[in-house]
Amino acid sequence: MNRTVAGFLGFIGGLIAGYCIVLFGWVAYSTIADVSDMGGGKAMGIAFFFAPLGGVIAGAIGAILLTRLARREAAS
Fold it and tell me: Minimal CB count within 10 Å: which of 28, 51, 54, 66?
């Protein structure tokens, strides 16, 4: 597999996984800890700032890992 394609796919996969992990992690935490969010401000902050940030970080990690894997595969 081409390293560029592997990096792109790793980024997209990491982006989606990171976003979902942060978002559903917040939902689980707020349910377990009984966090009051009547106005929805905390949920909006998670959905529009922290979850995308987690997605970008996880996407970068996924791109790096799959690019390294593609490089090793091409070398052998």
Answer: 28
